[in-house]
Amino acid sequence: MLNQWLYIGIFVVISVFLPGVAILLARILSPKKPNAIKNSVYECGVETFDKTWIQFRIQYYLYALVFLIFDVETVFLFPFAVAYNQVPLFMVMEAIIFIAILMGGFLYIWRKGALTWR
Question: Which of 11, 59, 93, 109 could anchor a disulfide with 114, C-beta 3.0 to 4.6 Å?
Fold first, then answer.
């Protein structure tokens, strides 16, 4: 029993030690030539010329959130699509139920008007 915990402890020590060494070596060996351009705030390559604290519409956030949800659902459906010829009927029915739930969510956000650009 103690032998198994010893392996876990060694793994934890190595998993903390190796990234720490890599970060330390990068800090020591990296060139340090600071200047005004490198120390400036990077805002998509363009310097800001007005107030930076402006309000964005919540709809941008909703679009991103809906995209993220459907993108993750696609990742879940990909293994099923790859092994479609080898899966039993039960798995096909589960995939159909999964797609139905996904379409239900899509219809819900469509009916709520979250997909209309104003």
Answer: 109
Question: Are the CB atoms for 114 and 105 separated by under 8 Å?
Answer: no
pLDDT in tens, 45-58: 666 677 767 777 77
pTM: 0.48
Does 117 reside within a domain?
A: no
Name which of 1, 5, 112, 4 is nearest 59 in CA terms.
112
For residue 58, what are the CA distances in angstroms to 39, 41, 55, 64?
32, 25, 9, 10
- Residue the block writes with tokens 């402006």: 54
Structural domain total, the chain: 1
Q: How far apart are CA 80 and CA 75, in angstroms?
A: 10
For residue 79, the domain's CATH number is 1.20.58
Q: Is residue 62 part of a domain?
A: yes
Residue 45 CA to residue 27 CA, distance in Å, equals 26
